[in-house]
Predict the 3D structure of the following.
Amino acid sequence: MTELASRLDDVAQRFDAAVDRANDEQALESVRVAYLGRNGEVTTVRRAIGTLAHNERPAAGKLINDAVAAMERRLQAAYEELESRSFDAELATSIDVTFPSIRRPAGSIHPVRRIIEESCAYFVRHGFAVVIGAEVEPDYYNFDALNIPNDHPAREGFDSFWISDTLLLRPHTSPMQIRTMQEHRPPIAIVAPGKCFRRDAVDARHLFQFHQVEGLLVAEGIHFAHLKGMLTGLCRELFGEQQNVRFRPSYFPFTEPSAEVDTTCPKCKGAGTLKSSPMGCNMCGGSGWIELGGAGMVHPNVLREVGYDPDRYSGWAFGFGVERLGLARYEVDDIRRFTKSDPGFLAQLS
Amino acid sequence: MRVPVSWLREFVTLPPDARAIADRLAMLGFPVAEIERRPTITGVITGRIADLQKHPNADRLQVAQVDVGADAPLTIATAATNVTAGQTIAVATIGAQLPGLTIAPRTMRGVASQGMMISAEELALPGDWFEDGIMQLESSCALGADVVDLFGLETAVLDVEITTNRPDAMSIIGLARELAASYGTGLRLPQIVNPGRAAEPPGEEPNVLIESQDCYRFVCQRIDGVRVAPAPAWMRVRLALSGQRPIDNLVDVSNYVMLETGQPLHFYDARAIHGGRLIVRSAHDGENIVTLDGVTRTLSPAALVIADDERALCLAGLMGGAVSEVGPTTTAIVLEAANFNGARIRRMSNALALRTEASARHEKSLAPALTDLGAARAAALLWDLGATVYQPHAFGGPVTRAAAIALKVADVQRLLGLSLHAQQIERHLTALGCEVDRVEPEVLAVTPPAWRCDLAIAADLIEEVARIEGYERIPVVVPSVAPHEISSGAFALESRIAGALEGLGYREIITQSLRDAGSVEVRNPLSEEQRFLRDSLVPGIVEYLAENASPARIFETGEVFRDEQGGLVEESLLTFGFSADPLDEPPWRDSHFLALKGDCERLLRKITGRDAETKRGTQSGFHPGKTALVTLDEREVAHLGRIDPRLAKAADLQRPAYLCVVNIASLPAYETPHYRVPSKYPSTYRDVALVIGVDVAARDVERAIVATLGSLCTDATVFDEYRGPQIGQGCKSLAARMTLQRFDATITDEEADQAVSLLLDALRKEFGAEIRT
Ligand SMILES: [Zn+2]
């Protein structure tokens, strides 16, 4: 019995020393196996119980179990100590969080599409549908049905690219208005975005290929105040809640009454002047207003052309240039940037 | 149109600030592009040279005594050479301010000069449009009057834009009328009465033969006793402020009347009209005319001319001819105030590439009634200049009164959303010159004034009411839209495609639809490089990739056009892809291609809810060995691959480009995926390595594995390929992994091994595959 106790003592002492020497988890595990494992030293000592007298065996068993418990506690403490030391080491490391990021390829949609989508989303919220259509259309849909017969002076305002005697690249998205009205009965509530073409000389304010968003609302009881309501809302959607919208009389063959639509210059907030520029605001030319496009009540001749009774139905339409909106919205200096799609330009606006 | 505010003020009382007037014009539908401010000029008065002597001490100077209506004349020394005693001139007195100059007392070679006689240029008028030296005024001018006030020199000039429907407003009176109606102040129109009463001397009665239906009215008047000289100063100043160069009294009168009333006029030298009558007719084919600008023009019958019995004298509504031009020897003229079909004049103007102030008005179809007004005004001015004016003669149709338009008061509210009483409506329309009768309590009968040809229907009148009331008075109301069946599907599809590609790391670009190649030609291109409609998005994208120095990942959606059996076919395409530096890979592998294919599969899955299949294919412009056709449900929807390196070289591409072209219309509708409950039993896998012919497609091996093992195999994927000397010529090694799983029990190793050996037999049979372990 004393011999067993002293053997146990000896094992425990060597165990403690081995634990002290172990400086990683693997070494500790080896120590555990060597002493507490199936064939470890403690097992060897335990086997010696068989040589003891029966009455000594319970005490010897307790002695061994206590020693094992103490060794396991010691081992546990050593594990915890090791773990804590490894956390300390990990936590002692640090990096420069301002180091340039690793970036996945950036995707973006074109600012023209973004404006179209945001404009359309606004109208869709108010119950409008979005329709798109062909870019080459007969003159009937581009002019005749819109109350612009041949020889009408307004045709010259739409200096178009002709494909044949009757086919042309649409100078506006209005053909979709006619097609939709011919295919459906009122109420008609649509927006028609898309690419348009006019033979304009290209400069910082003009493109020969550009985009429009047109809108059309035809039903019973639709009036000009509704036009003001929707377009004021659109401008606030695109430019912010402070936005004012101005309607000036104008002339288009397909609307009567007609209007030009202006909105507060977002750059100078309508002041016409900028602190940074003594010459006046370069965005609006000092007027404090940005021209968005035309609008008006659909001309009775247009309604009659699609078989609607103008005494019963009324409606309005508008057409805005998307790149023009983009110039004002993103404070872009030159409209040609929208067609060049320069990577730096796209990255900045996305 | 350049509009001197001082000229407007002759007819209507206006606020002092030009900006306020410009804003008001804009809100009436006449935007002002520019407000040209005039410099401040003070202390310039009219004077008469009472006496003129040589300067005692200087050969080049003279000393004038100038009567300015005061007690004593002013002594003024001058170096000007165009002064003589008795002339009325403008004098800048001591203290006067001119642009960049203040007049101070000074002594010129011993003579104390009390001011300066001045030229038009010193009044900030275009110097070369006026006489050299001192500006000459009329003797009728009151002495000592302020020249700035007299000529309206200090008020601004507005550059007013006038819409094509309002040729009546292309005139000072027209715009003054608009402002008077808007401000609610009266219009002070002079009583314009034609002074011509007397009959012409026998044989000189003007006669007009109208052979063309495109001339509606022709007022004609003979005026004798004219003498070409400079026009009065006030007229020359007004013309100059309006941007018209003064020429001589006759030309200036016709321009002045056109600017004031809107009616273009033409004066013929009476001697040049052979046969004594004017004929309005179409030009003979090949007929020549030398116009006033000195250009010889060959005409076609599309041109309308005013001719005499022998030759064309004038291009109707456009420009006179040299042969009947008035000049220094002219003593008698025939005045023309005519009205033409605007479309005819516009076509002629386009065909001859000739645009004038007259054609700009005629081509918009003027009101026939203006002819009488224009003739009367010109006759009155010439009368004032001392000419003998005979009676006017009108040819062509009579000036008819427009029919009354019925306007329901309720329709104003219905179209504007602004409630107005009948009296308010009546007041606005009356202010614009309409005659308004109340036929029923709520229905007005409105007769437009003779000069407003654009007013034809009730909606036209409602716009007039809104303009005068002010558009800003119309309320702002958000409509509630009733439900309808119109679909947003096509737009939504494009938006989803763009959104998906954005998520896959592609940037959207927009390139030009007009290019230097294609099968659909534009008749009137802006340049040769833009003669055709594109038939593919690829060239534009390749060009974009070539222009950008760094690798780029981009996409574009857009229309392409083809000519098919004479019919035009338009399609919506998507093209996306990237340029990338070549990888260090064996020639039989291209990871860029596989990456693009992966993006294509992701995109199609997201848009259609379906999994795409690819097979080898060819496509013009693409690398013949690195091109795939993409199908959904057996239907071809796209192709993708590496751009043909020869084409890339020609386009100056610095690195390989990979593009995928999707036909948007061919995409099937989105199919909602359904959840399939997976087996609750664990799966196992087996890898096999096969040596097979290089032409066997990996996808076919995968398909064969699934087909052979049936429901036991939940997935089969080729994960490696190798070619090399160990494999042998014409062969490649493929490694594939199959996942095996049962729904009713855990699959055992024995089952799995048995399945694999079954499979290997099948692969040997189908592909002649040799199995490596
Ligand atoms: Zn501004």
Q: What stands out?
A: The mean pLDDT of chain B is 94. Chain B touches chain A through 85 residues (CB under 8 Å). Chain B has 18 helices and 40 strands.
